[in-house]
Amino acid sequence: IDEHADGQSDSLLQLARSTIQFNYHHKVVASHCCSLSLAKSELFKETISALKEAQITVVCLPTCNLYMQDHVPNATPRWRGIPPVWELRAVGIP
């Protein structure tokens, strides 16, 4: 989910809200989660909180994303789509 560089995307937040709404706690895994790294503070905190409440597991794919994100031939990449792993772990999101 959200394998792009749009820091205003709330797709991960919507996934967490739907998970809570339909009582799928601890049954959902989200992968990539790249745009979360670029989210503004309020959206970032709200998303992290919802992920924790929904008990969503986040799987990052660093090898894949280090290659794909911002890949332009003959140019050095400026952004790499890695989710905020340390911040997720700090609040107990696996």
Which key phrases capture this entry?
94 residues; mainly alpha
Describe it for me?
- α2 (41-54) links the parallel β1 and β2.
- This protein starts with 10 loop residues before the first helix and ends with a helix.
- It has 94 residues and is mostly helical.
- The mean pLDDT is 90.
- A two-stranded parallel sheet has the order 1-2.
- It has four helices and two strands.
Number of strands: 2
Order of helices and strands: HEHEHH
Which value, in Å, is the CA radius of gyration?
Answer: 13 Å
Portion of residues within helices = 40-55%
Please mark out the parts with pLDDT under 50 across 5 or more consecutive residues, or reply none: none
- Mean pLDDT across the residues is 90
Q: What is the overall silhouette?
A: elongated
